[in-house]
Write a structure and sequence with these properties.
Largest sheet: 6 strands, antiparallel
CATH superfamily of the largest domain: Reverse transcriptase/Diguanylate cyclase domain
Strand content: 15-25%
Number of domains: 4
Radius of gyration: 66 Å
Distance between the termini: 59 Å
């Protein structure tokens, strides 16, 4: 079985980028932000439209005053024109003048005074009794009427009732074209009060009538507070002086910022302005905007939260599970399978790939196991003879040596060398030499009592016998030698004419404190002794010691 180790840690860590959830949030923001921007632009557009509508409303109220001013001037002109023609045709009537003038104004209650002024400027006849004899020669409208011989409207003035009054004059031309008398009519601008009442219906609104000098002639509300006061430096008055009509978002005479619509009154040097409170209107708009932004923020937060939580459950968590499975597979747990779970369609290919990888690794593990078994066999066995090789022999010798030391039992080693093998190779060739070694190996493999039968190197073989004394080892060695000789393998260049072997035997107890190398050296010395005796012989290590002692 192959054991998988955890993967080694790389020297450098992978570079992290935005997490999947962060990318999902980014995608959500990409989707939501344009909607937020569009909604914000829509709200701002609505705000601008409402401000524009407020401006148009203020200007519309102003136009109502202008139209009312034009209508009353036209009506006044008709009255004084009729009186002027009648007076020019019939002359003066000292007896019935007052009754005539009163009759002329009976259908025009807005005319507060109708007078006939002589060429010298003194009032000759009037609906206002106490004004007869009054000198009007210094009045600009009287002088302008005499000079131009046309209908003239004077400047606005504040009447005794604190209403705004206007005076119109029309010359009564004589037959020679000269100016005899001048018909004057004073009338109050009742439309100002009506416009003021209409303006007062709007919270925070202001209606104002002022001349070019900045003097307030009428104001609603707060008429008593502002009447006859001059505001030369007020931003609104500067706007009135700069243009004949228009819209301006400025501070009024009370310091409150409003959207003003203003225009010059016809036939006068005065202006009418109607201002609607911008803050009052924008307060409602801003409140609606705040609610819209709060709602949109809540929706955006809900969307982002949904993306965060949904991304965790639908994407991040499955990816983590797949990553853990990949780690298990990487650590060798190849029994894990992703097909035991249900996956979203997008994860099915990845899950299938992990299963395929685990299956392929399982197959590869089996292949490696078989290969390792084969490699292990190759590593422990000699490929030519099929016996254990030197490495396997050394490992078995160490194992048995420790067991001998522990049990205090003898361990015997038999070393075998094929006699005159070089000559055999030279005469028969290496292929024949290999066949000879295989035959010898097969014969030696029959020694079932041996703990290991190994090809020690070249034409040398070694057999290890556990719990075997020297006498028994010598008997076994003799059997092996005789068995090989009985094969009768031809060896024409050898003295005997067939293949023989020399055998060296050694037996030791590991408990004596020696090392395995001591046993090998002893067996090798015995083998050398067998060759000195003429080969095809078995020699034990103890015999050599005896020979040395006798020598």
């Amino acid at each position: 079985m192959i054991t998988f180790r955890p993967p080694a840690q790389p020297e450098g860590k992978p570079q992290a980028t935005l997490s999947i959830r962060a990318r999902l949030l980014l995608l959500a923001l990409i989707a939501v932000v344009p909607l937020m921007i569009d909604r914000a632009r829509s709200i701002e557009t609505d705000r601008a439209e409402r401000i524009a509508a407020l401006s148009e409303e203020a200007l519309a109220l102003t136009r109502q005053g202008i139209e009312a001013q034009q209508e009353i001037v036209v009506a006044a002109r008709s009255v004084v024109q009729v009186v002027a023609r009648a007076h020019a045709t019939l002359g003066t009537w000292h007896d019935n003048c007052g009754r005539f003038l009163a009759g002329a104004t009976s259908d025009a209650p807005w005319i507060t005074g109708l007078s006939i002024v002589g060429a010298n400027g003194r009032v000759a006849c009037s609906t206002v009794a106490n004004s007869v004899g009054f000198d009007l020669s210094d009045r600009p409208y009287f002088q302008e009427a005499q000079r131009t011989k046309t209908f003239v409207v004077g400047d606005l003035a504040i009447g005794r009732s604190r209403g705004v009054r206007l005076v119109a004059a029309m010359p009564a031309l004589e037959e020679d074209g000269g100016v005899g008398s001048v018909i004057t009519a004073s009338f109050e601008l009742q439309w100002i009060d009506r416009l003021g009442a209409e303006t007062a219906r709007r919270t925070g609104a202001l209606m104002l009538v002022a001349d070019l000098n900045g003097t307030v002639l009428a104001a609603h509300p707060g008429r008593d507070t502002w009447l006859r006061k001059r505001f030369e430096t007020n931003p609104l008055l500067r706007e009135l002086q700069a243009r004949d009509s228009g819209i301006a978002a400025v501070e009024g005479i009370d310091g409150v910022r409003r959207v003003f619509g203003f225009a010059r009154l016809p036939h006068t040097d005065a202006f009418v302005a109607v201002g609607l409170d911008e803050a009052e209107m924008l307060r409602r708009v801003d409140s609606e905007m705040r609610m819209a932004y709060i709602q949109f923020a809540l929706i955006g937060a809900f969307v982002l939260l949904g993306v965060w939580v949904g991304g965790e459950h639908t994407i991040v968590r499955p990816l983590r599970t797949l990553a853990r499975m990949a780690v298990h597979i990487g650590h060798g747990n190849l029994q894990i399978r992703t097909t035991r779970r249900r996956w979203a369609a997008e994860f099915v290919p990845l899950a299938g790939a992990l299963d395929a990888m685990a299956h392929r690794l399982t197959e590869r593990e089996e292949e490696l196991r078989v290969a390792n078994v084969h490699l292990e066999a190759l590593a422990r066995h000699d490929s030519l003879s099929g016996l254990a090789n030197r490495r396997s022999f050394d490992a078995k010798l160490d194992e048995e040596w420790r067991e001998s030391a522990r049990q205090n039992t003898p361990l015997a080693l038999v070393m075998i060398d094929v006699d005159h093998f070089k000559l055999y190779n030279d005469h028969y060739g290496h292929l024949a030499g290999d066949a000879c070694l295989r035959a010898v190996g097969e014969a030696l493999a029959q020694a079932t009592e041996a703990a290991v039968v190994a090809r020690y190197g070249g034409e040398e073989f070694a057999l290890l016998f556990a719990r075997t004394e020297m006498n028994r080892a010598l008997d076994l060695a003799e059997e092996l030698r005789g068995g090989i000789e009985a094969l009768s393998l031809p060896h024409l260049v050898a003295p005997s004419g067939h293949v023989t072997v020399s055998v060296g035997v050694a037996a030791l107890r590991a408990a004596n404190g020696d090392s395995p190398q001591t046993l090998i050296e002893a067996a090798d010395a015995a083998l050398y002794g067998a060759k000195r005796r003429g080969r095809n012989a078995v020699v034990g290590h103890a015999e050599i010691q005896l020979l040395r002692a006798s020598a």
